[in-house]
Hints:
Chain A is of the alpha/beta class and about 450 residues long.
Amino acid sequence: MTNPADTLYDDIRDLPIVSPHGHCDPAWFASDAKWTTPTDLILTPDHYLYRMLYSQGVSMQEMGIGVPADQKDPRQIWRLFAAKYHLFLGTPSHTWLRYMFNNTFAIDQPLTPASADAIYDQIAASLASDAFRPRAVFERFNIAALATTDAATDPLVHHHAIAASGWTGRVIPTFRPDAVLDPMDDRFASSISDLAQITNCDTATFEGYLQALMAQRAAFAALGATATDHAAEVLYTCWLDDPATYYAKALDGTITRAEAAQFQGHMLVQMARFSCDDGLVMQLHVGSKRNTNKALFESLGRDVGADIPVATDWVHGLQCLLDHCGNHPNFTLILFTLDEATYARELAPMAGHWPCLRIGPPWWFHDSAAGIARYFDQVVETAGYWNLAGFNDDTRAFMSIPARHDVWRRGVAQHLGAQVQAKVFDLSDARSLAPLLATQIAAQTYRL
Amino acid sequence: MTNPADTLYDDIRDLPIVSPHGHCDPAWFASDAKWTTPTDLILTPDHYLYRMLYSQGVSMQEMGIGVPADQKDPRQIWRLFAAKYHLFLGTPSHTWLRYMFNNTFAIDQPLTPASADAIYDQIAASLASDAFRPRAVFERFNIAALATTDAATDPLVHHHAIAASGWTGRVIPTFRPDAVLDPMDDRFASSISDLAQITNCDTATFEGYLQALMAQRAAFAALGATATDHAAEVLYTCWLDDPATYYAKALDGTITRAEAAQFQGHMLVQMARFSCDDGLVMQLHVGSKRNTNKALFESLGRDVGADIPVATDWVHGLQCLLDHCGNHPNFTLILFTLDEATYARELAPMAGHWPCLRIGPPWWFHDSAAGIARYFDQVVETAGYWNLAGFNDDTRAFMSIPARHDVWRRGVAQHLGAQVQAKVFDLSDARSLAPLLATQIAAQTYRL
Amino acid sequence: MTNPADTLYDDIRDLPIVSPHGHCDPAWFASDAKWTTPTDLILTPDHYLYRMLYSQGVSMQEMGIGVPADQKDPRQIWRLFAAKYHLFLGTPSHTWLRYMFNNTFAIDQPLTPASADAIYDQIAASLASDAFRPRAVFERFNIAALATTDAATDPLVHHHAIAASGWTGRVIPTFRPDAVLDPMDDRFASSISDLAQITNCDTATFEGYLQALMAQRAAFAALGATATDHAAEVLYTCWLDDPATYYAKALDGTITRAEAAQFQGHMLVQMARFSCDDGLVMQLHVGSKRNTNKALFESLGRDVGADIPVATDWVHGLQCLLDHCGNHPNFTLILFTLDEATYARELAPMAGHWPCLRIGPPWWFHDSAAGIARYFDQVVETAGYWNLAGFNDDTRAFMSIPARHDVWRRGVAQHLGAQVQAKVFDLSDARSLAPLLATQIAAQTYRL
């Protein structure tokens, strides 16, 4: 008897990719310039890779992080990586790389120190061909839509260029205003200034600041954006009587840490209210403590692999925002957690009640075969399938996108197939749910 | 080779139902009046159903919640439900309803918009027959005992009527004193007044209040009650030097929120001490934040699906109560959690030490096939089987009772069968454990 | 087709045992005296056993705990245990005992009240033979190395005796300084005094105290120690400007509880810095609330089964220590948790970044078949295999050691076999990982 999971996987394996949240560089598709080296394309942008190597004694310098381009040897870095590739056994990075080697670059041997040079050369040869220019790969990957993530003050020149180019690939921006909402962010003052300049609003007043934010939301939407994205280490939302006072303190640098948290909590609710008006879907990524390795942060800056999850309290943290907007028919809020203890305890019960809420897919460290299995196991019985947000790959590693969606689709098929075998529902139900989970619900949730 | 889970399920499938905790209406069995419509019996009492529908944009009004009886059309509500039935795929509600349709009402077609009217009519025809009067169904369900949950101030007229009727069905009350223990409960003042009236005690003094509580516990026990039930959002227990002072403030409305928490924490310990004396089994349901949707609460009141779990700290929260009563040989305390992170971390280690403790079955959002599997996986290795409390259905949806016990029994069989296959113990051990878990341990724990 | 798990288990089943952390008594191997009774060897040292019996109404006295040797009847205790043996069905204790009965004592009948005496006699007869002296059993168990746990002030007379005896069995101490680091420990004052005496350092000054600690670390290392071990209920680390002031208050008994926590947090960082210098691997066991049963603690003292886990925050708790030593190439820190919610949320991401960190195996209540499965499921995808610390049995029940390692090895084989079946990697990869996880990585991590 055929395993129902196999049938379900066959149904969805080749569906177009919907990628509504990620961190690819829009410049690739604006310029359509060839990528340079395998190392720069595959290794350097992927913090999953160098964090693991660092944990096993490989320095950031050896991996070329923080090294000027003219002082690093991409082939040498590739060889080092090949020598350490076994460290990734059992991790999703291994699965993604293997998929990419096999499927995208038609490499039929495993990466080892012995094969490192040959594989490097084979990939380099591919990248030198027109068939591997960004737009061609985008099309071969069968991507229906790809959202980038862009600062609220970004002039979106690459997105303008893509739109002006006549290319039909759908690459859209996402409005990410963290730096203009958090007075403790070291980019706050300069970002507010940028915001004034790009919108021509008077951000010296709170009213002008709100107008500027609305203007930029509209500018993003005009280029196809359907969503905003917000991050918080500790979730807190509130509604202040006098946000203008806090804003003035934020501007002149006299705001305390506690007041800044209040202001940011108020602005999250304000953003939700804007979403009720303009229909941009709100995303909330909570629980990552950033840059916990002080020595690395001071020498190399942000995003070098030392972001670590902390426990999250969705119920109390989101209460004020939900009081304001939770029942609004035009509002969609997608919640992403790094604290799996909240799947069954908080997120599934909340999404199973509030009309606005959708549960984001397993995020970051949990975007993996076992992480996906735990997610379905813990959220579906309470939230059902229609309160999920579908999948997104959340990656800056463009070449890994098909592999990541493939892991999700296999996970969908495994989960639904097991439910069929347990007689929770029958195969015809599962065959309607599989494409829903593979792509449709993501497109619906993000209003694509 | 036969799957041992199949053998085990066959062993226990048809055992009588022991239902030691739930929320059925004793009036049904007192009057034995026919139920009215399928909608009023099956949909309206079931907050699992309308919370999911609400999350997908169906208003409470459309489902008839808060609508006067003469202004709602039960058939129309049924049709709406049928149109949205797919939303429940993968949830226990779907499993329960399917079981009830198939087994209780002998319906052999799935519920769809096309079949909605026919199924409605078939159920309505059943309900119009004597065979579907409450007592007849109770007997056909093979229920050995059914506990209801009743306010401490309830005069228990229906339980008196059942006792007086000569009917042999065992329907017993459970003493639920939340409203007279928590000064912050909006029913506190009126409930204390009711308590005085029903017991003829002088509840103006703390001493009289304690006497009244003891008197009502005895009155419940006289009608067959074997248990009390207590709820707390945040677990806290303590022993005050001067509870009378707090009580006086509670009565005259000058008590602060912090003092009220202290008083309630003291009274939980007091209730445990009463249980040591009178032998009523104490149940503690912790971690539900009630009525989190303010707009719905203000328009429709309690229990409209917006109760959400929060994290629970059993170790510190229960310390004082255990200091007082934890080693008492006559004391049984059953703990129910909505925070599965506490299964392996706190509840199993605690129940594996304290003689009084039993771990309640998966509760509410976790009463499901996967929730049951996680429960066994996480509690048994530390607590063993004899420190579990067995199953209870905790439902106000009477028609779902056999379905809920069936899901548990299947879960028992799956778990034990897997242990047999993993050679943790052999099939003969499993065949002695299966009926223990299906019914015996619940009867023992609740002293039925 | 052969199940890959079977192949993998066959590969590793008979490898030597590496036991780098545990609580066996070194006196056994120093004197090599015969053990006395089955009860004293198997039941009395095992708090897993009497905690479960206590939870089911067996008193500590009945089990002989706290009873003078001349007033207890070991055979009677054995019979009582046999009568209650079914309570352990489904727990790892049952698996361990069965393995020991079958494999170590060649007993082929199950323990029941009827067989209790015969089994007692058979074990007693074995223990009376030279083949069951401690060193002979150690060798038959094929133990490559066994670490004990010893107070920082321990004169290590038994370890000296073992070294002097010429016996080749490798039994090494572990430096456990809790009592000299925590001013709230009731053994603090006497332990500091012992420390002065044993090292000849002037512990009246903070400088002398640090010198004494360094001296004892060196004394332990000279006897083969490769590791230290530290416990904390709540994890906290900090670096004080004036630790000497705190130390002076600790000595004269005027330190507050809050200051004591600061001092202990400082000393944990100090210990990490010592490890950077002397290369002793640091172990941190966090999250056990000790002696929660006040009545038992007052009558019987420590370690009578009422230690219960509490939630742990590794990210904030470890920050200061990692700021100081996290990137040091000579530092290894092994983290043990009782809060499985931290596996995927904190420990795996942290170990997947920091070069010093290794994740300890499932500890205590989680050292079980299902606990091991959850561990692999939740840590490997983020941390990989090389950031794990391998297995240790952490036991004072010497006879259970082979059984405990066998449960781990079966868990390794099950996990890796399932990965092979899911095509995460192939069987040849799994066959290189299996011995790594069974013994090699433990030996490497502990620098054995």
